[in-house]
Amino acid sequence: MGDDKYEFTVDWFSQYWPNWLTLTADQTISKILEIGSFEGRSACTMIDHFSKTAPLEVFCIDDWAGGADHNEFDMEVVEQRFNHNIQQAVTATANAVKVQKCKGTSIEMFGRSAGQRLPKLF
Ligand SMILES: C[S@@+](CC[C@H](N)C(=O)[O-])C[C@H]1O[C@@H](n2cnc3c(N)ncnc32)[C@H](O)[C@@H]1O
After folding, report:
1. Residue 42 included in any domain
2. Fewer CB within 10 Å, N side or C side of the chain?
3. What is the pTM (predicted TM-score) of this model?
């Protein structure tokens, strides 16, 4: 993925992307539910790739609240980078892409009425 249009400061994802490509090679992906979006690197990578072949709906859950694992980050700035990066990703895609930003914990998103907007997992 060319990162020029994006603002990322950390990379927890790229090393696993080849595995994702292998696992999804014979599938058409049209709906994605991501728990933990941070700056949007994984979401943008998936949007860039999967929107080439089909319209895409992406749900991004994150509370952008920091916590023990992310104490060193200013999560307000992280969230602003997410907003910027997703805006970049959905601009000029081959197929339509709809991203729903779901701000809150995964428990909140699945446990409350907001969960009705999310795809069901079986
Ligand atoms: C390792 S980062 C995600 C990395 C991201 N997928 C990427 O590609 O850069 C983990 C993220 O999960 C979020 N997070 C952790 N636990 C969560 C929870 N229970 N509900 C929602 N978000 C959570 C954190 O706020 C953080 O932004």
Report:
1. yes
2. C
3. 0.93
